[in-house]
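Researcher: Let's run the pair from yesterday's discussion. Sequence first, then tokens, for each.
Model: Starting with the first of the pair.
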Amino acid sequence: MASRSSSTRSSGARLPSPRQAAARIPRASRTDGSTTRLHILETAGQLFAERGFAESTSKEICTRAGTNMAAVNYHFGSRDGLYEAVLIEAHRQLVSIDELVSLASAAADPRLKLRAFLTHLIEMGSQPKAPWGFRVVLREALSPSPAMPVLIRRAVLPKAKLIRGLIGGIMGLPDDHPSVQRALLFTVLPCIVMTVAPRDLGRKVLPALKDAEGLADDLMRYVFAGLDALAAEARASAPATAGKRR
């Protein structure tokens, strides 16, 4: 029972958000080549966010970036390679692997770690204008391209494993347990919906959503209660399952 108090405002216990924690990691300075690569990536990302992969031409990307196709091929191999890189960057804008590794390795209660992660998503969703990566990921989810397997392998799977570890630690179950896998979906999906939902939904239909801190507190009560219930059910059913196998 005491562990649930970490979800309330009165506890005073907070971890730095994944982005704040990752900001402490020293970064190498960029060379001219990496600056050019980043400029092309940023320009293409904005165009893919506006029009989608199918409707964005290499010519327009190069025109907007003030470069040529040779530069795109040099840094990314092809237009398809550029789009794969854009997808990885788009997912990084949601939460980076460095941010999650830093959070997961912190010496703290896994409930506090999960709260820090979900609060980060809620705060990003409450921004007046979301980064272009949100729209790129949403477009890809609604209309998957041939690059989807690359996104899953390089971005989604490594991050999902880290979050499963946090949830498994809370539930007292292995991170690959079916209940943990389902709990990951139940936990993260509401935050994703709030991120991509039209801003008018909050302003006109559900005005209480503008209180990001209150929203985080209520979400954590909801999530922790659900995780506790799923964990209790998994533990209760384990002996019966083992008995049947004998």
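Model: Moving on to the second of the pair.
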Amino acid sequence: MVNVINPFQFPGAHRVLDDILEAAHSIQKLKLRMEKRGAVAVYANDNYGTWHSEFSDVLSNCQALKGVRGEVSKILAPAPSDLVVLKPQHSGFHSTPLQHLLSKIGVKKLVIVGFVTDMCVFTTATDACMLGYDVAVPPECTASLTQTRKSAALSQLHTAFSCSIAQAR
């Protein structure tokens, strides 16, 4: 789950908050279905430039935001059994222990969801493919600044990296 705990303060975010909220509800439903199948939820979340922060600080700050920005963080807050990795840049793999963690728990397939499709979700998915994971990116569980950018990113993931971009089941 990439950057799902997020203040959504990037340029243009206010224009896509409705899409983000819709994707958050889809992510929540998928997470519950996957937990019933025994899957582990791993949050790869940005620290938003606060280098001395812990994930709990990021979560509480985002949950305190008004409107959709806070609501999304409340909907997608991790359960105590979920795992969290803070990331310094776009990819969940870059400069994080994510690959080591996934290896230790025996993960072979990743379902990557989150925000935004054409940046952090895209780079995490491409890195996962290059590391040999079987990758799915369900489109209803992502959002981007424009539908054109989202469609282009998903198309590139499918054609160049053989990621599944089918709706989650």
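Researcher: Give me one sentence on the second I can quote.
Model: The longest strand covers residues 42-46.
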